[in-house]
Amino acid sequence: MKITKEHLLLALLFLIILGSRLFLVFQEQAFDYDAYYSLRQAEHIRETGLPLLKDSLSYSGRTFLTPPLFYYVLAGFSFIIPLELAAKILPSLFFAALVIVIYLIAKHVAKNKTAALLSALFAGFVPIILTTINQVSVFSFGLLLIFLLSYTFLRIEEKGFILLSIILTILLLLTHALVFLLLTAFFIYFVILTLEKQKINRREAETSFFLFFLALWFYILLYKKAFFLHGISFIWQNIPTPLLSSYFTEISFFGVIYAVGVLPLLLGVYAIYNASFKTKNRAALLYISFAFVSFIMLWLKLIPFRTGLLLLSLNLIILSASSIKTFIVSLTKTKASSFASIVIGLIILLFILTTIPSFTSAPRLEVPSEADLAALGWIRNNTDENAVILGSVEEGFLINYLAERKNVADSNFLFIEEINSRYEDINHLFTLRLKSEAVRLINKYNIDYIYLSTKSMKEYDVSELYYADPECFEMVYDKDAYVYRFLDCEI
């Protein structure tokens, strides 16, 4: 295959995005709090060949149920390079590769290489991407697979693409339930085609139904016990009621502007109008359906805020290629056609100028401080291996991975009964003043040590445990973060 200018520009864009992400990733000494679950799964797979299903440390003993493919990929790379180094590189590699997939999709939608390259540029530097820097998340791999699957759907009539779509669906099923969003988008797409009185492609319909029932069968088998245990709250992953508002934030107009950027948002919205009422572009209608499903899921709080905004923003960016193509074609029909390259340069400049404010104000995911990491290292080296450590819910995986000790709770809530009560008890143990109530709760969860991190002090607005007097508690570590040992006293 002949290497063209287009290929070189795309390769350069890939390298710039990968380099930029790696530069930011290596500025941090730690990952976000949920990343340590991924690290622990990958570590267990590397040691045993199997995912961690029965965990004696999480909630002091529980069952995990999670599609394991991403953790296998991470574990596989850890045989070549250290696990934590692989955890920094792989998600960045997947997000950079996503730009190539977005280019291929945008090129198919807009039938214009320049517009596709600009969409790829938008996708690489969309503001919401910045919030993924410190994550070791299945979404980096899941997003790559889901947009690859959508691309195979566009080319379903071509030889080999039905088989490829089935393979990608299986990989997605083994990675994350995101596949249901795309499959739902397929059916919305068929509804739109019917309303527009366009013929539904037989291969598209047959493949969609097959993939839907394959996914439904797989996830019924995987999650049926969780559904019977939690009922309807299974949809929200059994998240404690007080946490729902932070996990599933209300969508707002300004939130969408921040996530997508002003220029891609305007171009995407115009493309929706143009494809819906003028061009009737079938490929564009598919991504309008995908954007619609992402928006509805966000609005109904059925997917986490950042995940929904990532999907919504990438779909709008794909659609923006159609608007850019319309603009370029209109320009070539005027006397200003010789200035096309200058206008494209101005589009890039406008994107940069309108995106910088979002980048500078974008909230990074919080990572543990050095003081907190040091305290966990002390716990690992100076406590009994069966000790139960109380930390905040968000710090649960951190306690399991770095301190190698049992926690009281972490942010995987499936299969945990009475989670609201447990969550409230943990919060009370950081803010209570009455010693008798604190001792009762400590005995209830068989807690041996209380880990008061700098994060917990900030979160609960405390500088110490009010009830920790020398009669029942011994402060065994006090270097910015604190560790209290419970002396088994009774009230």
Molecular structure report:
By secondary structure, this protein is mainly α. It has 2 domains: 5-30 and 65-361, no CATH class; 370-486, Rossmann fold, CATH 3.40.50. Helix content is 64%, strand content 5%. The protein is built from 20 helices and 7 strands. The protein has helices spanning 5-25, 35-48, 69-77, 83-110, 113-124, 138-154, 161-173, 179-195, 202-230, 241-247, 253-260, 262-279, 282-299, 305-332, 340-361, 370-382, 396-403, 419-431, 435-444, 454-460; strands at residues 54-55, 62-63, 388-390, 406-407, 449-452, 473-479, 481-486. It has a 5-stranded mixed β-sheet. It has a two-stranded antiparallel sheet with strand order 1-2. Helix 2 (35-48) crosses helix 3 and helix 6 (138-154) packs antiparallel against helix 7 (161-173). The model has no long low-confidence stretch (mean pLDDT 87).
Secondary structure elements and pairings:
Blueprint: H1 5-25, H2 35-48, E1 54-55, E2 62-63, H3 69-77, H4 83-110, H5 113-124, H6 138-154, H7 161-173, H8 179-195, H9 202-230, H10 241-247, H11 253-260, H12 262-279, H13 282-299, H14 305-332, H15 340-361, H16 370-382, E3 388-390, H17 396-403, E4 406-407, H18 419-431, H19 435-444, E5 449-452, H20 454-460, E6 473-479, E7 481-486
Parallel strand pairs: 3-4, 3-5
Antiparallel strand pairs: 1-2, 5-7, 6-7
Helix pairs in contact: 1-4, 1-5, 2-3, 2-17, 4-5, 4-6, 4-14, 5-14, 6-7, 7-9, 8-9, 8-13, 11-12, 11-14, 12-13, 12-14, 13-14, 16-17
* Helix-residue proportion: 55-70%
Content of β-strand: 5-15%
Low-confidence stretches: none
Note the overall shape.
Answer: elongated
Computed over alpha carbons, the radius of gyration is 25 Å
What's the story with the biggest beta sheet?
5 strands, mixed
Integer count of domains: 2
Q: If helices are DSSP runs of H or I spanning 4 or more residues, what is the number of helices? A: 20
